[in-house]
Amino acid sequence: MNTKVTLDFTARERKNIWEFLITRLEEYYENTSRQKVAPALEMQAIRKLVEQHDFQKPLVAREALEHVLKGLSEFTVHTSHPSYFGLFNPRSNFPGILADVITAVFNPQMAAWSHAPFAAEVENYCIKGLGKMFGYEESYIDGTFCTGGAEANLTAVLCALNHHFPQYANEGLRGLEVSPVLYCSAEAHHSVIRAAKVVGLGWDALRPIPVDAMGKMQPDCLEAQLLTDRKNGSEPFMLIANAGSTGTGALDPLQELAQTAKKYGLWYHVDAAYGGALIVEPELKKYLEGIEESDSITIDIHKWFSAPMATSMFITRHPASLHQTFRITADYMPKEASEMKVTDPYTHSLQWSRRFIGLKFYLQLLMVGWEGLAGMVRSVSETGALLKKQLLEHDWELLNDTCLPIVCFTDARFTTDSQFVPALCQEVVNSGKAWISIYTIKKMPALRACITNYTSTEKEVGDLVNLLNKLRKKYLKG
Ligand SMILES: *Cc1c(COP(=O)(O)O)cnc(C)c1O
């Protein structure tokens, strides 16, 4: 049997399969709002479905696809649903979906520039474009596409270490005579903790700085901690600020922190995984003032910019830094472009063989332009403002204050009843009509709703508030 032919299928079979699949996917995409937002987590049923086939006999294509589509329809939290008010998981935008399909078909190898020169230059162009928006000087901008904010933050910690301790690349932490410490907000994303752990610094090297009532890092506390650490002989090397914390959407005082970083010679990284999207909107970008003074930035294209998963960007204004951090030469890697002034992506990134992540952003820009992105960011912000307004009108108490479309709230009558919020949240999720989450603020659980889907409108916001009001009434009656 010729395996190549089997795996390719015939041209006729492919045509049928494509047509069938596109019709079904289009049905889902067009009618996502008819889905129940969250499934019941019936572990036995799910496993049974997954293990239904033992691969001894191949299924016909349609049957195989039906099986997968059924599993995903029934047992997925539909983050693409306009009533999913959850974590920063967007609905995939259409250009991004097309890009993922194209990438899978061409499968360009992003390790060596000479194997995928178009793809490599597309990514560089996107990184430069967004870097300029953030206010970096064009000729210094460098960066890499990453699988997510976690990888981008890890990349940042590695660049900072290599920048501050040039011997780190060869000798590792063992080569250092000092004890490096780094700083972040107490509300930093947990990927920052993990980065400290995996680079070998350990959790103890990380100094979470207290935040104020609105979740912003307090520069005074930072300075005090820096002085203490210096006095104790530690070597501060990095500061990580939040531009949109995951819980409450808090933006740290970016300008002030830039000053502190400068004063103490720290690599200044801004984790703008979600909030960084504000930069494309002329009225909203003011909230990111100070980000231009950073040394590097994390921005997830798969959050507010709504690319399908595994699309993130690390940007820096130190053009030698990624190279210094990741450079390695391997004899077997293609060398056709070694005379050209180009960079092999594998010398620049944690990844080696890598998919063409950047196409999802490039195609989106080609198809809707910066204007289109700005309009989307503006409209999602407005929907967020509407949600805040409606909650206030119905006597909900807001517990955070941010320019981002994230609302943390409760009912003032239940601030000492720790059951109220979990009970309400569970009922919302169980209803299948919407999805919200819980975030703990000052040791008390709060309801958290975030506009994370550009198709969420006034209608979904109104429905959510009605549902919450109804459930609150029910809870009151006991
Ligand atoms: C989501 C998030 C991350 C992690 O990004 P992933 O894309 O999930 O890896 C890091 N920082 C912040 C502020 C985030 O919101």
TrEMBL record:
Keywords: Aminotransferase, Decarboxylase, Lyase, Pyridoxal phosphate, Transferase
Domain of life: Bacteria
A molecular function (GO) term: pyridoxal phosphate binding
Modified residues (N6-(pyridoxal phosphate)lysine): 303
Pfam families reported for this sequence: Pyridoxal_deC
Gene Ontology annotations of biological process type: amino acid metabolic process; carboxylic acid metabolic process
InterPro entries attached to this UniProt entry: Aromatic_deC (IPR010977), PyrdxlP-dep_de-COase (IPR002129), PyrdxlP-dep_Trfase (IPR015424), PyrdxlP-dep_Trfase_major (IPR015421)
Cofactor: pyridoxal 5'-phosphate
Spans traversing the lipid bilayer: none
Family stated for the protein in its record: Belongs to the group II decarboxylase family.
PANTHER family listed in its UniProt record: GROUP II PYRIDOXAL-5-PHOSPHATE DECARBOXYLASE (PTHR11999), MIP05841P (PTHR11999:SF70)
Stated name of the protein: Aminotransferase class V-fold PLP-dependent enzyme
